[in-house]
């Protein structure tokens, strides 16, 4: 714990990570469960409660929007229009919403989260097999975000797998691949349906976005399992720093332990207290580009606690890797809204995003005109 005699570190910015190459925070957390300090390479925050309090929006009224999926798929025309307009508003305001009545069985979500725990319980040698050499390798396991470029480390282990258009997956532990395949298929169907609603909410045909970006035929879907072990000084470290995601929409489920915070447009952070069994969604950079800035990508981060392991399963869906993404031509045609982003192939954007330091919207800023 930081004490009154410890100077409060307000800006910690070492130029390099001064730690031996580390492949797993789980191993470090378990082997040093007696320690009460984190290694200095993990210090991200000042630890000053006032700094955090200023930035936290604890207004109970500051609710997270809810989208009732069943109204999109089987509501009356009026109910569907209302759900589409709620969805559009959520994308425009916070860039984050919860989806209820989505039809993905609770048991399947639970089994996938359990599968993640079983994956992380494999030996370090077994996990090492999936380490991945390149940021676009279809199976990649690691720690922090990208230790080769970071100047601060994050208290997080990850497994990232490309699951669509081709399904890749680790073959251990038993059954994890099959469960995840079922979950990814159902997540895809829900996300595709939401993207139809998003397209309509922009005043476009329901399938306009899909056709422009080849989402359903070959849009990239990634399965990410994040593990955040208990951290002895959660006030100093982060599981993931503030960032936006690269795709169109990202789905997230978690093991009942909170830790996700989303940023309001006024800069304040909101703790996400998810409705049990709901799906959480945030808007990504490619929705911002496609909508020509109307639906800005949401900035979010993962905070830590000192007593429970948190697991999140994050499933972004994006355009086809081969599509050059530009703002939708119908949204810029009138001349009143000139394109605000330069076109870039999704594959190149993804590579840039994954090989850079995770830092707010710094990658999106590179394609902003
Ligand atoms: O675990 C979380 O709550 C956030 C994870 C996240 O933002 C990501 O994997 O991109
Ligand atoms: Fe994210």
Explain this structure to me?
The structure is a single chain. With 369 residues, the chain is α+β, with helices and mostly antiparallel strands. The protein has a single domain (39-367), classed as B-lactam Antibiotic, Isopenicillin N Synthase, Chain (Jelly Rolls). It is 32% helix and 19% strand. Strand 8 (260-263) and strand 9 form a beta hairpin. Helix 5 (106-120) crosses helix 7. Mean pLDDT is 91; it is low at 1-20. The protein binds 2-oxoglutaric acid and fe (ii) ion. Fe (ii) ion binds next to loops. 2-oxoglutaric acid binds next to strand 5, strand 11 and strand 12. InterPro entries: DIOX_N (IPR026992), IPNS-like_FE2OG_OXY (IPR044861), IPNS-like_sf (IPR027443), Oxoglu/Fe-dep_dioxygenase_dom (IPR005123), Plant_2OG-oxidoreductases (IPR050295). Pfam families: 2OG-FeII_Oxy, DIOX_N. Keywords: Iron, Metal-binding, Oxidoreductase, Vitamin C.
Write the layout of secondary structure elements.
Blueprint: H1 25-31, H2 49-55, E1 66-68, H3 69-74, H4 77-93, E2 96-100, H5 106-120, H6 124-128, E3 139-143, E4 157-164, H7 176-201, H8 208-213, H9 215-218, E5 219-228, E6 240-243, E7 249-254, E8 260-263, E9 269-271, E10 279-283, H10 285-290, E11 300-302, E12 310-320, E13 324-325, H11 329-332, E14 344-345, H12 346-355, H13 362-365
Parallel strand pairs: 1-2
Antiparallel strand pairs: 2-10, 3-4, 4-5, 5-12, 6-11, 7-10, 7-12, 8-9, 8-11, 13-14
Helix pairs in contact: 4-7, 5-7
Bound molecules: 2-oxoglutaric acid (AKG) and fe (ii) ion (FE2).
Fe (ii) ion binds next to loops.
